[in-house]
């Protein structure tokens, strides 16, 4: 499961607790969503933009890869 970053921390905790109880993996959150269309418009990968969006994407992709190896 990948979540958009919630501003409401209470909802965040409720969703994360629900995922934990359902034994679903929380792979990460996307808070730098504005960078996705910017990268697409420039014809670049998100990683090439650098900054927080690139770090977030690398972390998320790494977690997805690790999770896929377990299933």
Description of the molecule:
By secondary structure, the protein is mainly alpha-helical. It has one domain (2-70). The chain is 63% helix and 8% strand. It is built from four helices and two strands. It has helices spanning 9-21, 35-42, 46-49, 51-70; strands spanning 2-4, 28-30. A two-stranded parallel sheet has the order 1-2. Helix 1 (9-21) links the parallel strand 1 (2-4) and strand 2 (28-30). The longest helix has 20 residues, at 51-70. It is flat and about 40 Å long. The two termini are 14 Å apart.
Task: Output the keywords.
two-stranded parallel sheet; 2 strands; 4 helices; flat; 63% helix; mainly alpha; 71 residues
How would you briefly describe this protein structure?
The protein is mostly helical and 71 residues long. Helix content is 63%, strand content 8%. The protein has one domain (2-70).
Low-confidence stretches: none
Proportion of helical residues: 55-70%
Total helix count?
A: 4
What are the secondary-structure elements, in order, as H or E?
EHEHHH
Mean model confidence by pLDDT:
78
Radius of gyration: 14 Å
Major sheet size, sense and barrel closure: 2 strands, parallel
Distance between the termini: 14 Å
Total discrete domains: 1
List the helices and strands and how they pair.
Blueprint: E1 2-4, H1 9-21, E2 28-30, H2 35-42, H3 46-49, H4 51-70
Parallel strand pairs: 1-2
């Amino acid at each position: 499961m990948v979540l958009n970053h919630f501003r409401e921390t209470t909802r965040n905790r409720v969703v994360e607790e629900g995922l934990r109880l359902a034994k679903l993996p929380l792979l990460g959150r996307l808070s730098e969503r504005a960078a996705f269309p910017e990268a697409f418009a420039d014809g670049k990968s998100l990683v090439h933009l650098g900054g927080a969006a690139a770090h977030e994407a690398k972390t998320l992709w790494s977690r997805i890869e690790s999770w896929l190896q377990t299933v």
